[in-house]
Amino acid sequence: MLIPAEIRRAIDPQKDGEALYLVPGINRVPWMYTERFYEKLAEAIEPAIAPGQEMVAFDHIMFAMARRLEWDKAGRVLIPVETMRRSSIQREVTLIGARDHLELWNRSAWQEWQQELPVRHGDLARMVDMARQVRLRTMQQ
Fold first, then answer.
1. Domain limits of the chain?
2. Burial bucket for residue 104 (CB in 10 Å: 0-12, 13-18, 19+)
3. Can you tell me the distance from the alpha carbon of 89 to that of 111, in angstroms, rounded to the nearest whole number?
4. Strands 30-34 and 67-69
């Protein structure tokens, strides 16, 4: 898959690393993080001598199922076959930016999701605003 030039230009190899990490996203599509950001995420998760089953499962998803992707001189990365199978990725894909990561969607699924989003926009905005208000109150205490 070709990583668009505008995305490659935005990634500074000195600051962000020279690769992307591909992990299963919580929305069942592959997510990509820059190398350094993924490493910071990994460091932020405190290891435990006896983690609970949920933590073990999370570690399996975020680390055991993660794949390091390097692009070639043409800006292409190879998406592993098991990732494509697991997430039902087909040949026609769309790469989107979502805050701190990229997401790899089947083009048709992304088009359908885009049609659904405007209908949910008001509810989503209210939920985000409520979470923001709770966080602000917590910070003020």
1. 5-109
2. buried
3. 14
4. unpaired
Q: What angle do CA 38, 74, 33 make, to 5 degrees?
A: 10
Tell me whether residue 20 is exposed, middle or buried, using C-beta atoms within 10 angstroms of its C-beta: 0 to 12, 13 to 18, 19 or more.
Answer: buried
Cβ atoms within 10 Å of 106's Cβ, excluding its own: 18
DSSP structure string for 97-114 = EETTEEEEEEHHHHHHHH
86 contact partners, CB below 8 Å, separation of at least 6: 24
| Nearest alpha carbon to residue 106 among 27, 7, 11, 16 | 27
Tokens linked to 78: 């190879």
The CATH homologous superfamily of the domain defined by 5-109: Transcriptional regulator MraZ domain (3.40.1550.20)
pLDDT single digits (tens) 76-126: 999 999 999 988 888 899 999 999 999 999 999 999 999 988 887 788 778
| CB contact set of 24 (below 8 Å; sequence gap of 6+) | 30, 31, 61, 65, 83, 86, 87
